[in-house]
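TL;DR need structure tokens for one chain.
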Amino acid sequence: MRESPSILSYEDAARAVQQHAATLRPSRMESVSLLNSLSRTLAQSVVADRNQPPFARSTRDGFACRSADLASLRPLQIAGRLRAGEIWTGPPLQPGHAIEIMTGAPVPAGADCVLMVEHAAVDATSITPARSFQAGENIVPAGAEARAGQMLIEAGTRIGPQHIALAAACGYETLSVYAQPRVAILATGDELVPLGRLPLPHQIRNSNSYSLAAQVTRYGGSPIIHPAVRDNLEASEAAIRVALDCDLLILSGGVSMGKYDFVELALANLNAEFFFTGARIQPGKPVVFGRLPEQNLYFFGLPGNPVSTLVTFTLFAAPLLAALTGRKDLGPEFAQATLTQAIEAKLNLTRFLPAHLESSATGATIQPIPWQGSGDQSAAAKTNCFLVVPERSGSLPAGATVTFVRL
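>> reply
TL;DR here they are.
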């Protein structure tokens, strides 16, 4: 028996997804080379193999000195030169002397500060400091960044270039990451034809499967595109049964209230439990979220219109997928910018409107994109975010600070 449908506010629908996502854990790990770990989710924390830095390090080109000698601003004799990659083999720095040093080089014993080269008058054998320095200036002490054995990158982190750099500094040639969850994609509709076939006047190409596969890949999953499903109950049930060997099931189309929308009924016939069957949002109101208990398989039924598919995946499917990849930051990612033109509100709906964000060092502005409804793929191609117009917010004037969600 199909459960009574429930249409939630955006906040309640997002909360329901987050609550279920919080219970999920990846089941598989694998080892990949350091460069191949980019954008994957770390499964085992990275720890420091030695102190970072392993020696007191100069942060400037200049002269290693004794701060006590600089107080008088008297000339100092140059006792030698030290480059990065070298170690001082002479005696500890003596009073009245300085050692020329390059950025990244180990600070020699006896020195407690580095006088920057621009703060000294230099001749062939001596320097005359232009100012005094405190002990410790322009030196990073050994172990100041991390101690040997300290956790540096926590499991659950999505790996970026900065993490790869740190792992490389600690000698990691490979990293343990969570296996990419397999996401089955089923697009429904009698009007859909494969990309290689010329559509008839009443047909369209199956673009949603590719849009969803791209989003699944971006969020760390491995997409499995199944053939498009005809608009009848038997075909819908059969297609879902074939796609059950996955970690997440995403269907697009067939979730509205039309005479030939069979996805919810097919799922109900497979004993699905529905957590919500709609959200008070535009576009994307007929979004469905639930689980097939026998397989413990979560599913989303997304609207078939392309912009609705983009919006509902970003808001609901992406956070659950992020949990399946092992990530701790589940998203979606919201931020704020200045609105360039007024927006009229619609009561009882949270709107996610196609928009283009432009940002610079002085701030960010957001420009709504004209669109012809949730089937307008040309408008979607100009979109890099969705402008959020909260439910019951009233109209938004130009110049207002508004929220957007990144695409």
